[in-house]
């Protein structure tokens, strides 16, 4: 007996390259590991028998759909990240302490690309 999880993802670009980029940007490999782990814990008979398929769907005509499954290496990467997240969650729950980026108010600088973009706009406005 096997099970397949189908996870629709709506996107303006369902090309294979865009799908891989989105998987990396959004941490979808870790999400696949989390969902798979949940199903396998709820239904132990399915352990090792759960397939996960992303369905990248374009919401406008011609409504392209690109089904994507992760390679073994990508699944292992997601599973490692999921295990680390679960372990961190457990440590934080036990310690009643949660990691943070900073303990104080920080001052940030505009990134160079933003200033360059603004300068380009200023030049364009003068023309």
Describe this structure in words.
- The protein has 127 residues and is α+β, with helices and mostly antiparallel strands.
- It is built from 4 helices and 3 strands; from the N terminus they run βααββαα.
- The chain has a 3-stranded mixed beta sheet with strand order 1-2-3.
- A hairpin with a 7-residue loop joins strand 2 (50-57) and strand 3.
- The longest helix has 24 residues, at 72-95.
- It is flat.
- The mean pLDDT is 96.
Structural class call reads alpha+beta
Give the termini distance in whole angstroms: 68 Å
Radius of gyration: 21 Å
Strand order of the largest sheet: 1-2-3
* Proportion in helices: 40-55%
Q: Main beta sheet, described? A: 3 strands, mixed
Average residue-wise pLDDT: 96
What are the secondary-structure elements, in order, as H or E?
Answer: EHHEEHH
Roughly what fraction of the amino acids lie in strands?
Answer: 15-25%
Instruction: Tell the overall outline.
Output: flat
Provide the low-confidence segments as ranges.
none
Count of individual helical segments: 4
**Number of β-strand runs:** 3
Main attributes of the structure:
single chain, alpha+beta, 3-stranded mixed beta sheet, 3 strands
């Amino acid at each position: 007996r096997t099970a397949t999880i189908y996870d629709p993802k709506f996107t303006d670009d369902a090309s294979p390259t865009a799908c891989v980029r989105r998987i990396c940007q959004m941490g979808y490999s870790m999400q696949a590991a989390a969902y798979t782990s949940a199903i396998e814990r709820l239904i132990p008979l399915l352990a090792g028998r759960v397939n996960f398929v992303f369905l990248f769907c374009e919401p406008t005509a011609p409504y392209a759909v690109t089904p994507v499954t992760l390679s073994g290496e990508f699944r292992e990467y997601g599973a490692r990240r999921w295990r680390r997240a679960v372990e961190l969650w457990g440590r934080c729950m036990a310690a009643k302490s949660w990691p943070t980026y900073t303990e104080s108010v920080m001052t940030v600088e505009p990134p160079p690309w933003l200033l360059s973009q603004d300068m380009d706009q200023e030049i364009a406005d003068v023309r």
